[in-house]
Design brief:
It is a single chain. The protein is an alpha+beta fold. The chain contains 10 helices and 14 strands. Strands 2, 3, 4, 5, 6, 8, 9, 10, 11, 12, 13 and 14 form a 12-stranded antiparallel β-sheet that branches. Strands 1-7 form a two-stranded antiparallel ribbon. The N terminus is likely disordered.
Length: 349
């Protein structure tokens, strides 16, 4: 049981320090433009794209796979304004479905929030390249998150009052609140927004690039990146489409595993139980951890996302955690960038 608890906390801790790989790999300024792929948005006012976003997590232990959760969301993006300085895009959640949730209590909590509060739209502004600049209705989004966390805590601690003795509600809510202290903090927790917007304004060398580096918190890391042109959708793609695919392998020494677990415990667990838990941490035999990250970013020729996937495999102490976040287009209607024609191109998967 202790091993499972430590694993969960460690995996969560890693997420706080991990940035998307592709976002960290920027090509040298001296490169010829002919050898680079520039990720730039060539959008038109009234462009409308629909996507299916999927969030899947599972754990594999002793060859048994246990699905933690599987959630699907239908979303729509509409360009409501386009100028020489950038775009304003309305992001509308259409429908969210819980396909699976291991923890029935948490599934009930999530469903209660969905049924009670619905969802919230984003009004997003970008620069001329498509790089996300602001959530224009941030105050509305922030208030929505505050109410959601309050509702979650009411349900969680109402059903499990004994939880407050181990993880005080005040600390739990403070930790969650840190995720929306500002737009930047909130954006780092929104994998769907990152899949959509994080590469705009960046350039990547065509071909394959590999290098050994240290991660942002000093762990050994090997990165491989491939960028090229080609149809990103076999039936509905275009020859001028392009893609950036990258992968990394990060090794976390066992001494660091212990420190990460202990750090997270001390932030969340009540003082009453800290001594007991720290003794358990100190008496546990640790192994190094491996994190395998793979990201695929596929774009249509005009910069609209075609299909994006971020998958992560974490191996620690005999347990594997699989996380897959994906986003794929389901319908599209766009104009001709820079042209006088208002002809729209329609496609539906």
């Amino acid at each position: 049981m202790k091993t499972k608890v430590f694993y969960i906390i460690f995996a969560f801790m890693l997420q706080l320090f991990t940035l998307p790989i592709a976002a960290q790999v920027v090509s040298a300024q001296q490169e010829s433009q002919d050898s680079l792929i520039n990720v730039i948005a060539y959008f038109c006012k009234n462009d409308t794209l629909s996507y299916l976003y999927e969030d899947y997590e599972a754990k594999v232990e002793n060859n048994d796979t246990i699905v933690d959760h599987y959630i699907k969301s239908e979303i729509q993006l509409v360009v409501v304004d386009s100028t020489s300085k950038g775009y304003v895009i309305e992001y509308t959640p259409i429908k969210t479905t819980i396909e699976a949730y291991k923890d029935t209590m948490m599934a009930h909590v999530v469903q209660t929030i969905m049924d009670t509060m619905g969802d919230v739209k984003y009004l997003l502004s970008t620069d001329e390249y498509g790089t996300l600049q602001h959530i224009e209705n941030w105050a509305e989004v922030r208030d929505f998150m505050k109410k959601s966390i309050k509702l979650m805590s009411d349900s969680l601690y109402g059903n499990y009052p004994q939880l407050n003795e181990i993880i005080p509600r005040q600390r739990f809510e403070a930790k969650l609140s840190s995720y929306y202290v500002n737009e930047q903090a909130y954006y780092k927790q929104c994998e769907d927004l990152q899949l959509l917007f994080q590469l705009y304004g960046k350039s990547y060398r065509i071909g394959k690039t590999e290098r050994n580096v240290s991660s942002q918190n000093g762990f050994p890391q090997h990165i491989a990146l491939i960028a090229s042109y080609g149809k990103t959708d076999e039936e509905d793609g275009f020859d001028d489409d392009y893609y950036i695919h990258c992968g990394t392998e990060t090794t976390v020494p066992k001494e660091e595993v212990k420190d990460l677990v202990k750090g997270m415990m001390n932030m969340m667990v009540s003082d009453k139980h800290l001594d007991e838990l720290n003794q358990g941490i100190d008496s546990t035999e640790y192994t190094e951890a491996k994190i395998f990250d793979a990201e695929e970013y596929n774009y249509f020729y005009n910069g609209w996302p075609c299909g994006m996937t971020h998958s992560k495999l974490t191996e620690i102490m005999g347990t594997e955690k699989h996380e897959i976040k994906s986003l794929i287009w389901t319908s599209r209607r766009w104009g001709v960038f820079g042209g006088e024609s208002s002809i729209q191109t329609d496609g539906t998967m």
